[in-house]
Design a protein that fits this description.
The complex is a heterodimer of chains A (about 240) and B (about 425). Chain A is mainly alpha-helical. Helices cover about 50% and strands about 10% of the residues of chain A. The longest helix of chain A has 30 residues. Classes of the chains: A mainly alpha (about 240), B mainly alpha (about 425).
Chain lengths: ~240, ~425
């Protein structure tokens, strides 16, 4: 019985990992085994996010170990001048500056993928559009009156809001989406989707770094408990044979 | 072996361990027809032990201050070796404990385990359950996330709805005008010292009263009526080795399921660790939708179901009274049940229907308590609250006047 459950569970995991990272409905599933994607995600975080957003519960060292980046290489290329490899990841912008410049603190991103979801981040990065009424000239379909500038705009290109007749954004069940504007981005739409995916995947990792260790240990523990259950069952059966 | 028996004898001359083992294990006689519903007591004990041990290790690295509590949890999850395992065991353990306790309680209601002579076992067990609820509520504040904070804010504000003394009481409980670092400090102290001591003491009382009167069984047959010359019930088998081996098997199967959650679904799809609790507590931003932990959801739904004032009393106060009564009324079941038989198997049609109604109401309330408030959820919650209470309040009538089936003299396997 237990064994059957275990086997069913195992096959479930394998089939899950075989599913494409982004489904037809556009729902992304993080893939921690895709190390290249996680490393690209780190690159995007370092280049575009880390100026304002901290990953304060994460240490540089842990990332270098988990993502398979040699320590020396990491220190030389990825570590900010002010930080040491064992430090927690802080941003250059202070909260006070953030308040002054953007009117809001830039949230810590360590747990963002748990607080919302990796899928939310994936779509959020693609949902910016031009909005003249906003101080930064952009708005976001997933986060009304967003205080963040569209830092990836030069890659994605300008996006415009397109709504069905009579509809406006941010109403429940609104029929709005964003479409390509006149200024084209530096990379193709497909490549940009990959960038959004890698970032979401990387943040899913920072929210749950124990997952590498957890799942491999978990399989061993389950195997042991399943085996133990078999012996416990045989023991019980042996003792209860004479009970009528 | 010789050395071992000498140690045992040395000990036994000074402390009666042999007599203890005989009385509690090898010559403690248990009905032989106990089914799978009877393993949840030992599972609850296992989980309490798990909470105690993992709790001690969590306390080593946790910081009970408003400024550092949230970060210290992340420190445990990331920097403490196997900290994630210890914490997931604690969080999953809390949820598992409530699942196990709800089945344990249902077993008692189904087989009439609260009836004479087991009233005290029931009362002590219910007291223990009540204390575990408070323990869980206080523990929930400690991660200092948004939902921790606002859950504690809402529930402690209930004290404020009590007429006349309310406002003072609310402040006294919080130690501040609102939930703050002071509240966190006292909840921490109570959570890790005061209530665990109480719980261990009550487990001892619950078990020793049970061992004194003996276990009921699925048929509700009194096995002490038919005994052999030595006074041993004919339909019984000794606790050791029979129930020891059965409990070990139950523990193994349970551990398998428990580990699947710990290692592969530690968030429990947002039921064990809620999304909004991944954001540090912010007293200035009230979340749109404050929900209780899933195991309190049925009671929370009853609290919200009372939307009207009555006799000049505030709806919030009435809601709290209803919520408190929903737990307290369970204490009185031994005296509400007037049935001549114990087990649901021999009770009449009405008892079965009302037990069914009770279970359905409880589950419906659990769902309603986890949804955002709307007209529909309020209506459904109100009906389910009626269903919940009617099981208890009408019990003296339906259990007395229904026709029951005859209870067999001896148990059957």
């Amino acid at each position: 019985m237990n064994r059957a459950i275990f086997i069913a569970l195992l096959s479930c995991f394998f089939s899950l990992s075989a599913v494409a990272a982004v489904s037809d409905q556009g729902i992304m599933t993080p893939d921690f085994n895709d190390r290249a994607s996680l490393q690209r995600g780190l690159k995007i975080y370092s280049n575009y996010c880390s100026g304002c957003h901290q990953l304060s519960y994460m240490r540089y060292k842990e990332i270098s170990i988990d993502l398979g980046i040699p320590n020396a290489l990491f220190e030389e290329n990825l570590l900010p001048k002010y930080a040491r490899i064992g430090d927690q990841i802080t941003a250059a912008m202070t909260p006070a500056d953030a308040k002054r410049w953007f009117g809001a603190k830039a949230p810590d991103l360590t747990l963002e993928a748990k607080r919302r979801s990796p899928n939310w981040i994936y779509h959020y990065l693609q949902s910016f559009y031009q909005d003249k009424s906003r101080p930064l000239g952009v708005n976001n379909l997933l986060l009304k009156n967003v205080a963040m500038p569209n830092v990836l705009e030069h890659l994605q290109g300008q996006r415009l809001l397109q709504c069905k007749q009579g509809e406006t954004a941010f109403k429940a069940g609104h029929g709005c989406r964003t479409v390509a504007g006149e200024i084209k981005g530096r990379i193709s739409e497909q490549d940009f989707k990959q960038i959004a995916y890698d970032t979401a995947n990387f943040l899913a990792y920072t929210a749950d770094p124990s997952r590498f260790e957890r799942e491999s240990l978990g399989l061993k523990v389950l195997l042991f408990v399943a085996l133990f259950s078999v012996f416990a069952y045989l023991l019980k059966k042996e003792f209860w044979r004479d009970v009528r | 072996m010789v050395f071992f028996s000498r140690v045992i004898n040395w000990l036994d001359e000074r402390f009666p361990i042999k007599a203890f083992y005989k009385k509690q294990f090898s010559e403690y006689y248990v009905p032989k027809n106990l089914n799978a519903m009877y393993v949840f007591g030992v599972l609850a004990m296992l989980l309490l032990f798990n909470q105690l041990i993992t709790g001690i290790w969590l306390a080593m690295s946790y910081t009970p201050t408003a400024a550092n509590a949230f970060a210290s949890i992340q420190y445990i999850m990331r920097d403490v070796p196997y900290g994630w395992l210890i914490r997931y065991m604690h969080t999953t353990g809390a949820s598992a404990l409530f699942i196990v306790l709800y089945i344990h309680l249902l077993r008692g209601l189904m087989y009439g385990s609260y009836q004479r002579p087991r009233e005290l076992v029931w009362l002590l067990g219910m007291t223990l359950y009540f204390i575990i609820m408070i323990e869980a509520f206080m523990g929930y504040l400690l991660p200092w996330g948004q939902m921790s904070y606002w859950g504690a804010q809402v529930i402690t504000s209930l004290f404020g709805s009590i007429p006349v003394i309310g406002k003072g009481l609310e402040q006294w409980v919080r130690g501040d005008y609102l939930v703050s670092g002071v509240t966190l400090g006292r909840f921490y102290a109570l959570h890790i010292i005061a209530f665990p001591i109480l719980m261990v003491f009550l487990v001892y009382l619950h078990l020793s009263t049970l061992r004194h009167v003996g276990s009921n069984n699925p048929q509700g047959v009194d096995i002490k009526k038919h005994v052999n010359k030595k006074g041993v019930p004919l339909d019984s088998i000794p606790f050791s080795p029979y129930f020891i081996t059965k409990d070990i098997l139950a523990i193994a199967v349970f551990l398998f399921l428990f580990c699947v959650v710990i290692f592969f679904f530690p968030d429990g799809f947002g039921f064990i660790l809620e999304k909004s609790n991944f954001e540090p507590a912010n007293p200035l931003i009230t979340p749109e939708h404050i929900e209780a932990a899933w195991y309190f959801s049925p009671f929370y739904a009853m609290l919200r179901a009372i939307t009207f004032s009555l006799f000049g009393l505030d709806a919030k106060f009435l809601g709290m009274v209803v919520m408190m009564s929903s737990v307290l009324i369970v204490f009185f079941v031994p005296w509400l049940d007037k049935s001549p038989v114990r087990s649901i198997r021999y009770k009449g049609y009405l008892s079965k229907c009302f037990l069914g109604l009770f279970v359905v109401s409880f589950l419906v309330l659990a769902v309603m308590g986890s949804l955002p408030v709307s007209k529909a959820t309020t209506w459904i919650s109100q009906f389910a609250t009626l269903g919940y209470f009617s099981y208890f309040l009408l019990m003296p009538w339906y259990s007395r006047f229904e026709t029951t089936k005859p209870v067999p003299e001896r148990v059957s396997l």
